[in-house]
TrEMBL record:
UniProt-recorded name of the protein: DNA-directed DNA polymerase
Enzyme class: transferase
Family, as annotated: Belongs to the DNA polymerase HolA subunit family.
Gene Ontology molecular function terms on file: DNA binding; DNA-directed DNA polymerase activity
Documented EC number(s): 2.7.7.7
Top-rank taxon, per record: Bacteria
GO biological process, one term: DNA-templated DNA replication
């Protein structure tokens, strides 16, 4: 069965995991959440079960996995196999592990699936059946994002007015990690407010509005160093959790610029198609056209790598102060050539 972001939370609330799952997509927050839920469900069912991780993207590890699965002595208790693999390996892995389950659980983890992969017989059949769960961890559509936010609010026991889900969806524009962190902050401050409203969130939680974040991004792309430093200092002093939103917004905008360089639309019609496909119109389109002229592709790629590292610092995966790195990344993009 295919499970999209709108159904993630409700799925794990109402049923146990199946013995085989496929987690695909490049939305890292959703992937991490799904894996946490699968591990929790496994622990609930098999308190003393063992978790094994295999990276089968290299053939020797694929062979090692096969050897482990064939070893009958391994199956004295249930195991959770987390298998990193390539799309081309999925069909073979699904057929192979179907013979070696023995009460164990398997999760195939992919970066993403192409549209050709999604037309494959194994994917179509798997989505229609109930034996395998396909978790689609891709950038959510607006409707799916609102549904996910609604379930997240309910799961945390937050009472809220009807406009809150759309407000959060509009504010964070698909940034699930930003929503999650905002709700953690709401829970801490909820004692004085029985029912959460959009006005309450705006006034008490987001002391710095999204316009401050937009100004920060625009300062980078317009090469206004003084303005960028001033806004960044203000944002960091106002609410340190805003770095998640800044990093996400800057990364998304840089990816648009990188895609433009890669596709190189030559005619007005091609350019219109490029921006329409990404739902970029009006002033925002003009903003991107100016930004694209100021940035070279190699700088964009390097900045995206830095932003990924900054995000890991913010999440505590690696040590360090992320705001300093964000400052230098912005100045790097604005440097004179």
């Amino acid at each position: 069965m295919l499970i999209e972001s709108a159904k993630f939370i409700s799925f794990f609330q109402r049923r146990e995991i199946t013995s085989c799952s496929v987690v695909f997509g490049d939305e890292e927050f959703f992937r991490a959440q799904i894996m946490d839920e699968i591990r929790r469900s496994f622990r609930d069912r098999c308190e003393f079960g063992e978790r094994l991780v295999f990276d089968c993207r290299k053939n020797n590890r694929y062979d090692e996995l096969k050897s482990v699965l064939r070893n009958s002595s391994l199956f004295s208790s249930s195991r959770l196999f987390e298998i990193l693999c390539n799309p081309s390996q999925v069909e073979g892995l699904l057929k192979f592990i179907s013979c070696y389950r023995h009460g164990d659980f398997f999760v195939l983890i992919l970066e993403n699936l192409s549209w050709q992969d999604k037309k494959s017989a194994w994917f179509v059949a798997g989505c229609k059946g109930d034996e395998i769960c396909f978790f689609s961890c891709i950038y959510p559509s607006p409707d799916h994002f609102i549904a996910w936010i609604n379930d997240l609010l309910l799961s945390k026991g937050i009472k809220f007015s009807p406009e809150v889900t759309e407000f959060l969806s509009t504010f964070f524009e698909g940034n699930a990690c930003g929503v999650y962190q905002a709700l953690e902050q709401i829970i801490l401050q909820q004692a004085s407010q029985k029912i959460i409203t959009a006005d309450y969130i705006q006034e008490n939680i987001f002391s710095t509005t999204r316009y401050g974040v937009d100004d920060c991004i625009q300062a980078v792309f317009s090469r206004d160093r003084e303005r960028f430093v001033r806004i960044l200092n203000y944002l960091s002093a106002s609410d340190e959790s805003l770095i998640s939103l800044i990093v996400w917004r800057l990364s998304q905008d840089l990816r648009v610029c990188c895609a433009y360089h890669s596709e190189s639309p030559l005619t007005p019609k091609q350019e219109d198609s490029f921006f329409q496909k990404r739902k970029i119109f009006g002033e925002r389109r003009s903003f991107f056209i100016k930004a694209i002229k100021l940035l070279v592709e190699s700088d964009i790629v390097q900045a995206l790598s830095c932003l990924n590292f900054i995000d890991k610092k913010h999440k505590g995966i690696v040590p360090g102060y992320p705001w300093d790195d964000l400052l230098w990344t912005g100045l790097f993009l604005m440097r004179d050539r």
